[in-house]
Model the fold of this input.
Amino acid sequence: METKIGIFLCNCGEAIRNIDFAATKEEVAQIPGVTCVNLSSNLCLKEGKEKMISCIKKENIDRVVVAACSPDFKEHFFRQVLESAGLNGHLFSMANIREQCSWAHEGDVTVKAVEVIKMAVNRARLLQPVKKKKFPVNREVLVFGGGFAAINAALQLSRVGLRTTLLEREAILGSETVELGSLCGFDISSMMSEVEGDENIEILTSAEVTAAAGKIGGFTVRIRKGGEEISHKYGAVVLATGYQTKLALEPELKSDINIVSQEKLCRMLEDPNLEIRPRTIGFMFDFSDENSRLSTLATLNNALAAKQKWDSEIYVFCKSVKVDGPGAEKLYREARDCGVVFLKCEARPRITADNGRVKIEAKDVFLGEDTILACDLLVAEELLLPSEGTEALSSLLNIRRDSRGFYQDENVHLYPVASEKKGIFFVGGCRGDLDLSRVLTDVSSVVVSVYELLSSGNILTEVEKVKADPQKCVACLTCIRVCPHDAIQLVRVDGGKEVAEVFDLACDACGVCAAICPAKAIKFRAYRDEEILAQIEAIGES
Amino acid sequence: MNGCIVAFCCEHSAYPAADLAGKLRLHYPENLRVIRVPCAGQVDVIHILKAFENGAAAVLVLGCEDGACHHISGNTRAKERVKYCNMLLKEVGVDGRPVAMFNLSPNAPHKFVRAVNEITKIKKESGR
Done:
């Protein structure tokens, strides 16, 4: 059947001035298959939308081409217009005659505009509808970890009505969080009792994962606990495995009792039976690891506490003080006001043990001189590392890690809590150095994302955007190897043959598999080869 | 196609960069024709060769920055394919038809214009 293409030209409220729309209209009306051409100046406003819908219905158009702004800007809007006119949203193609035509060139660009529209029409002729389908999903969530982030995430997930399982490797929940609680001054016990009393939360301690398979909506996870293994299905997985710290010290200094970690200093500060109060304390951070948000906060807090409790002289050696957390700037000013001295050094200071004291030699950049300090106690620099087992877990779940070994966000700015595999999320320290307020933000965004996915029990998604033809597939596994989202698997079809199948829920429609398939068995519906070739054919016709 | 440049632009990086170039009124040669693709890794050898068959003077494949590909490794695949394509063209003796891959981010309109200018320069040098 011959397709009926409707072209809608829009001059974007007269923002496109160097295209002769009357001539363009005349010319594009000559293209075979084009039923009607409409000229408008406000296609994306209410009147334009209504006119478009009535025209589609009246002329019985089955393919729509809009020649106006960039598809990045309005494609989604026009797809919805098509759907309200009773057409499939994918039977739509856009010609960018504004950003990449009118605005990018000086002088009259009517010829180019006509050609760009011809390209879009050629593509539109070959477009195929993409159907939507509902997939059932499992409404349970698995949370890895037992720390502050994990407990918070489990509590909030349970609050929105999703059954949650907390899986902790240690024998008790929050063993390290209790210490952190005393460090940062919050009470974790109420949170713990709440999580233990919650009927919607199942707690598995001393448990570990031995195998994981499946995709979003149905991850099958094998959990070993106390000698027995169980297998269970979860709709989504949240990783909150946290971080660990390590002192960045030369090996010979590690046994020095006058060199301590932030945590040890906290305990000393709380100890009522401490015999000798250190009179001079040195702190160090931001030399080996640029990501020093947490050690900066710990230093500021502890320096203030030591000043108030012991009235010690405090010197802080650092490259720069990074105060990007809420309240951090205030803490820094407070510390300076009560006499904490900050020394900015470019190179890492030299530390030596010196008759029961610690000698620090550094070059201050502002004084320009070598500074030597003999202190009673040195709080050493801490390195932030992913917790043990991060590597094993990431290979089990098949997700990537960044250069420092932490889980890699899908997009650092746009989707910081999502992994590249749909349905797997990260919160807190396992994805980098985050202070508590940032961890809470993470928890909230993960809960919203998980709720969006699982709350209704099924997900509406476009199906067969990318489809492998079982007749042509030779099961060479190339697509399975290249798929960045792990969305392709082998399935057995009638006749015992194994072929590749794209799992629509996990697929992000990038088309890498379609381009690489040696047998040309995979078709990418929204950008089929024919469509791209047809666009190329239109170039230079005029 | 009388000497057009065909640019395959990844919708996550190069296409928004091209839009931004227009918004900033950064002018580039008028003979550029942009084809929007979901990922540079989706551009197949056949697409590039077809462009040349239709008379394109040069082909650009524009994808995300190294290590920042929206689809993780699409840009590296595209680079390999462009390399392979150059080899093919050389083998069949139509050497001198420039195919080039550039990496850019969505907020880099200047880099987009530079890429277009660069390929135009190569095109002129090869006498097309």
